[in-house]
Write a structure and sequence with these properties.
Radius of gyration: 23 Å
Distance between the termini: 72 Å
Low-confidence stretches: none
Shape: globular
CATH superfamily of the largest domain: Vaccinia Virus protein VP39
Mean pLDDT: 96
Largest sheet: 7 strands, mixed
CATH class of the largest domain: Alpha Beta
CATH topology of the largest domain: Rossmann fold
Order of helices and strands: EHEEEEHEEEHHEHEEEHEHEHEHEHEHEE
Strand content: 25-35%
Number of helices: 11
Structural class: alpha/beta
């Protein structure tokens, strides 16, 4: 049976024709296709104002992003063939990039499955489903994962705030198999203990993998400060690479406990300190105590989650970078990152330029980083490009 139709308002099809996958509720001609006639998760054919089909999407009449395209074909279904094909294609890319099964297997729109993120931890798969459209087909999705990978366990990590917008349950659960008592992954020559149910997001952040490797390559004989360290993904490889000391600072006691366990697992616990503190306060105290570090990693959580938060978030990034520069050794390296989509690379560039000038430092960029290859960027969906990192060499003003 053919899917029902929705129609866009006049001239609202340009972005979709250019390759984007989202239809906003205010772009829909609700006179011809009233959204309240549909249920959350229904499949529809998206048409331009003249009635030309643009593709198949799933729809939620109650959200700002009303529809997300899953195919340019008009007969697509969220069935076994769809998920098997998309998962197999996503796997092919990851197998080209990585020789071990530790990566983001599916990155939503970039892998052709809007509303779905899957992180792979060996034989354990952690899923974040953020839309009613994918939620409606989750049993088929799980069955496809079982058939393709024969996993030990599949976890639905349902604590994302995006699920609330779609009126979905926030309770995480193991939907297949049995979660092992201990999950250990490998990244950048280090081993890490991962807690899926108790950790943030899917339980791990693979996205900075390449920048962490660059950091480790710089770390020999250096004193390293890892701010917002979470479970030590920057600090532990630095210690393994020969850092004399690594200080991890985070506000989460459980994250630091996990980092400490991973440090012991890698036999670098004697080089590392784990400090539970507010990063702003830690940096202020370090400045007052005249502490200095050779490498500082500044990788905060998203401080600008919505456009309306930009002003306050920009100020927070500005202040953090200024404080970090003030406790950096002469000829030191500041690695400054942002995962806020609403803070552009140009914004971060300007923050670093202005704060270096403000405190009379000479700062140059010697490298830039972004998300790893398992977080591919869809060229027509700018929202898929969110991570930006600057590697800065800093010394006294010339």
């Amino acid at each position: 049976m053919a899917h029902p139709n929705i129609f866009l308002k006049k001239n609202e099809d340009k972005r979709i024709r250019q390759g984007h996958l989202w239809v906003f509720s205010n772009e829909v001609d609700i006179t011809r296709s009233p959204l309240n006639a549909f249920q959350a998760g229904d499949l529809v054919i998206v048409n331009d104002h003249a009635g030309q089909a643009l593709g198949t999407a799933y729809l939620n009449p109650h959200t700002l992003i009303a529809a997300r395209l899953i195919s340019r074909k008009t007969n697509a279904k969220l069935g076994k063939n769809f998920f098997t094909e998309r998962l197999t294609t996503a796997l092919a890319l990851r197998q080209k990039l990585y020789d071990k099964p530790y990566y983001r297997l599916v990155f939503a729109e970039s892998d052709g499955i809007p509303g779905l993120v899957i992180d792979r931890f060996g034989d354990v798969f952690s899923l974040q489903i953020t839309t009613a459209g994918i939620e409606k087909s989750k049993d088929i999705l799980v069955a496809c994962l079982v058939e393709l990978f024969e996993p030990q366990a599949i976890v639905l990590k349902n604590d994302s705030s995006q699920r609330q917008l779609e009126n979905l349950s926030g309770e995480s659960e193991v939907v297949y198999g049995e979660l092992p008592a201990e999950i250990i992954i490998e990244e950048n020559a280090a081993r890490f203990k991962v807690s899926i149910l108790d950790g943030q997001k899917t339980g791990w952040f693979y996205d900075h993998r390449d920048s962490r490797a660059r950091c480790a390559a710089l770390a020999k004989n250096q004193r390293v400060l890892d701010l917002f360290s979470y479970s030590g993904a920057w600090g532990i490889p630095a210690a393994l690479a020969g850092a004399t000391e690594v200080v991890c600072v985070d506000s989460s006691e459980s994250a630091l406990a996990m980092a400490k366990d991973s440090a012991e697992l890698n036999q670098v616990g004697d080089k590392m300190q784990f400090v539970r503190a507010d990063v702003f306060e830690y940096l202020k105290n370090a400045r007052e105590q005249r502490e200095l570090f050779d490498i500082i990693v500044l990788d905060p959580p998203a401080l600008i989650k919505r456009k309306k938060d930009f002003k306050a978030g920009f100020e927070a990034y500005r202040r953090l970078n200024q404080l970090a520069l003030q406790v950096l050794s002469k000829n030191g390296v500041l690695i400054s990152a942002s995962c806020s989509h609403h803070l552009s690379r140009e914004n971060l560039h300007e923050i670093l330029r202005s704060q270096a000038r403000h405190i009379d430092r000479h700062l140059v960029f010697f490298a830039q980083g972004g998300q790893g290859g398992d977080h591919p960027i869809h060229p027509a969906v700018p929202e898929t490009q969110y991570l930006k990192t600057y590697f800065c060499h800093v010394t006294a003003s010339l």
